[in-house]
Amino acid sequence: MSLKKIYLIRHGQTDLNLQGIVQGSGVDSPLNETGRWQAEKFFQAYQHIKFDKVYTSTLQRAQQSVQGFMDMGLPHEAHAGLNEICWGWREGTKISPEEDAYYYEVLGRWQKGEIDLPIEGGESPVQVAERQKPVIDLILSRPEEETILICMHGRAMRIFLSQLLHYPLSQMDRFIHYNLCLYQLNFTGSMLWVEKFADVSHLS
User: How far apart are CA 14 and CA 19, in angstroms?
Assistant: First the structure.
């Protein structure tokens, strides 16, 4: 039985994370000093792993988070399907209390099953899942890549994990995340399970 090992991480911290400014897929912000430190800590902890491929979104904060591995000469593919959800016209803005209330209302409706509902001017969970699906199919169709590293974004990662593990998208908030946290998964070709869940021990 062949085993594919998937190391899935969220990008490191950006200044916009700190400032409470919405990034989404439309704001291509770089890592800040803390984010670069987080990326280096992850690299130091996992550089011994023999990764066959590095996958990222097309956004620089994801690519900078795994730059150490790419600098080792590992093959890299960037896919827009792995980009963060589009948060509509809120991207690049600091959330007001009124907008915050709307955001939590939308999240609540997603949790109740309204996963076709897009945030105003942006995407719905179903739309994100649809653009992720070809990337997931591609990654899982490559048995020769036995150990891979994927770096992406918080909300997109929740949707990605829901798809991989066959959870309803309405339950995606079960998959918590932090900057530079790790989900380690094993895939046999028919079964997939989580070995590490939002692990940040490498940052301590």
Answer: 9
Facing residues of 77 across strands? Answer: 55
pTM over 0.85: yes
CA proximity to 55, closest of 131, 151, 160, 130: 151
pLDDT recorded at residue 97: 80
Tokens 């896919």, residue? Answer: 79
In degrees and rounded to multiples of 5, residue 94 shows phi and psi of -85, 130
Residue 100's pLDDT is what?
A: 85
Which residues are within 8 A (CB) of 57 and not within 5 positions of it... i.e. 6 or more apart? 63, 78, 79, 80, 82, 83, 84, 151, 152, 153, 156
Between the two ends of the chain, the Cα-to-Cα distance in Å is 35
How confident is the model at residue 5, as a pLDDT? 98
Helices (H), ranges, 124-175:
125-140, 154-164
Average pLDDT over residues 46-69: 98
Mean pLDDT value across the chain: 96
Q: Which of 70, 78, 79 is nearest to 51 (CA)?
A: 70
Q: Which residues contact 59 (CB under 8 A, 6 or more apart)?
A: 11, 25, 28, 83, 84, 153
- How many H helices and E strands in the chain? 7, 6
